[in-house]
């Protein structure tokens, strides 16, 4: 599970003071509603707002047909670099983490413990998980910076709607969805391409529990290349972790090892125990419905016979 909690030490004081935005963010707030777009993510529609429309248009162009009308269900407000006073921007840049990592503060003193505070190389953000609201100062106008904030916020919002983001591709097979999870290089994209079937997602998929208790798998706009066209979610047929091999076969995973293997592939940045418990409880319900298996496969379509 993505759950980094680096020790920020004295940096935490500067971070929480800067992202209170009592100055620069408040000044830009009236204009934020002028540029607004939404995109669908399973049971959730996330709106993005900014006083400068170029960044949002780049992001929505990348998300493609996942774009939809704003709904107010969840809102992320972005303040681009050109709207941040020079002295504030320089101070934030001086505090930035050296590597491409995300620092997380729980019980932010700025927000009185309500918000999750995030620090990245090119952004600072506060996410209100319960209210599904967030605001971010951007130190870079790169589309990928906005996408990073959106992914983190989505990982925090979705468990409250009985849904999870996972590192996995997904595709249709015999009318059901196959979710194939694994780290970078495990063959997620290769597997979905070799399937020759309708691809739901090639990098990050969404698993959801319906009110009836069934599990569905669907696509997301989060991808290294423009995302596949959105498709209706499918009932989950197989939940897999991948292993490249010389042949294709399914390996049962012992029950006591399924949860750790599943959690390693769930995307969630919640810093507190309550958030982890919520994710773990949802993961357990999904595993009750569909056990986790390991698919060994070679780079050819022979695995389709095994899955069928």
Question: What is the compact description of this entry?
Answer:
With 308 residues, the chain is α+β, with helices and mostly antiparallel strands.
Provide a descriptive summary of the structure in words.
This protein has helices spanning 11-18, 24-32, 53-63, 86-95, 143-157, 188-195, 255-263, 273-289, 303-307, and strands spanning 36-41, 44-49, 67-68, 74-79, 103-105, 116-120, 123-128, 133-138, 163-173, 176-181, 199-201, 204-209, 215-218, 234-244, 249-252, 266-267, 292-297. With 308 residues, the protein is of the alpha+beta class. The protein has an 8-stranded mixed β-sheet, with helices on both faces. Strands 9-10-14-13-12 form a 5-stranded mixed β-barrel. A hairpin with a 2-residue loop joins strand 9 and strand 10. The chain starts with 10 loop residues before the first helix and ends with a helix.
The helix content is: 25-40%
Overall body shape: globular
Strand content: 25-35%
Q: How many angstroms does the end-to-end distance come to? A: 29 Å
Helix tally equals 9
Spatial sequence of strands, sheet with the most strands? 3-1-2-4-8-7-6-5
Taking pLDDT < 50 over at least 5 consecutive residues as the criterion, the unreliable ranges are 1-25, 27-32, 107-112
Largest sheet: 8 strands, mixed
What value does the Rg take, in angstroms? Answer: 20 Å
Average residue pLDDT: 83
Question: Could you state the order of secondary-structure elements as H and E?
Answer: HHEEHEEHEEEEHEEHEEEEEHEHEH
State the total count of DSSP E strands: 17
